[in-house]
Amino acid sequence: MPCKGKTAGKALPLWPAMYLQQISVINFKNYAEAGLSFSQGVNALTGNNGAGKTNLLDAIHYLSLCKSYFNPIDSQQIKQGCDFFMISGVFDKGEQHDTVACGVKRNQKKQFKRNKKDYQRLADHIGLYPLVMISPYDISIIIEGSEERRKFIDNVISQTDNRYLDELIIYNKILANRNALLKKIAETGRYDAGLLEVLDEQLVASGNRIFEKRRAFMDEFTAIFAELYKYLTDEAEQVDLVYESQLLQTSFAELLIKTTEKDRVLERTTAGIHRDDLAFMVHGMPMKKFGSQGQQKSFLIALKLAQYTFLHRHTGFKPLLLLDDIFDKLDEHRITKLMQMVSNHDFGQVFITDTSTARVCQVFEKINVDVKLFEVEGGLVNA
C-alpha cells in the first residue's frame, strides 16, 4: 500500500547497499504467522495501540542483534499457548543475500543461523546488520540510573567491535570474583591480600581496555551528537553530553588501592569502569530534572541519530533505522525536520510505527517522500 509524495515522478534517494528485503514470524508475541516484504526506503506500520506494530520492529531487532529490544527473556516472546517462536529474514547486501533465522523453544537454548549455518558465538553476528531503534522506552536512558547509559555506550561500540563485547564479559566475571572475595573476607575475617592483588591486576588490565575504547568512542560521538541536536532544534537550546569516568582523573590501579578499605566495609568494588556514566545537560542544568518532554525527546532522538552516524562510519553500511511511535510528544516542526533528515541520502532503510495512517501520509507528502504502508490489526498485516 503506497503513500505517495506530492510531486509525480520524484526519484527516491540512493538507498544503501544493505536492507531487509522480507521477514516472516511464527508464534512471535501476538502473531500466529505473518510475512512482510519491505521497500528499500521508508516503511510505515500503522494501527491502534496493542495491534502489534512494535512487535514487528522487535522481530527485526532480533534478526540484527540476536535479542529483543524490550525484554531480555527469550521465552517470554513466545505467543501464549505455543511452545516456540521462529523469525527469519533476508538481508540484501549488494550482490550478497543472507538468510538469517532465529528460533526459540521453551526450556531450550536459542538457535541462531545465517545461511543455514549455526553460530558458535552470537557475538560473531553482532554488527553484520547494524541497527538503531528509537522507542518511547528510551526515556529510561535519561531518567533511570547510570546502568542504562552504560548499556547505550556498550551497545553502540559492540556493533562495531565484537572484541569489546568479549572484554565486557571478561571484566564482569573478574568483578564478580572480586566482589565474592570481599564478601568472603567479611564473613571469615581472613584477608587474602595475594588473591586480591591478582584480581586487582586482572580487573585493571581489562578495565583499562574498556575505558580506552569508551573514551575514544565518546570523543567522536559527542561531536556528532552536537551537530544533530543543533539541526533538530535550529540551535534553540544549549545542551551538553559529557562522559563521566573515575579513570579520567586517576589511574584504575590507584583507585583500587585508595578504595580497598571502603570496598571491604561495603563488600563490593566501588571504583572502576562499571561506575561510568553520561551527564545530559540542558542550559547547564540536568536534563533529567529540568528538560521538558519535548527537549528530552529531541535529546534522545539526537543521541540515537548520532549512534546511526557512528555505526555508518565504522561498519560501512547504513544501519536499519526503526522509529517506534516517534511522532508522540514532538511538535510539527520537529517532526518535519526529523523526517526530512531520515529520508535523505544520509539514511537508508527506515521503519516507522504510528497510530494514524493519515498522519504518516500527511508528514511524508509534505516532504515529498514515498512510503510503503502496512496496516496492522490484531496480529494481522495488510500491505
Automatic annotation (TrEMBL):
Keyword ATP-binding part of the UniProt annotation: yes
Q: Where in the cell is it found?
A: Cytoplasm
Which GO BP terms apply?
DNA replication; DNA synthesis involved in DNA repair; double-strand break repair; SOS response
The record's listing under Pfam families reads: SMC_N
* Location (main, coarse): cytoplasm
Residues spanning the signal sequence: none
- Which residues bind ATP per the record? G47, N48, N49, G50, A51, G52, K53, T54
GO cellular component: a single term: cytoplasm
HAMAP family (UniProt xref): RecF
NCBIfam families in the cross-refs: recf
This chain's protein is named DNA replication and repair protein RecF
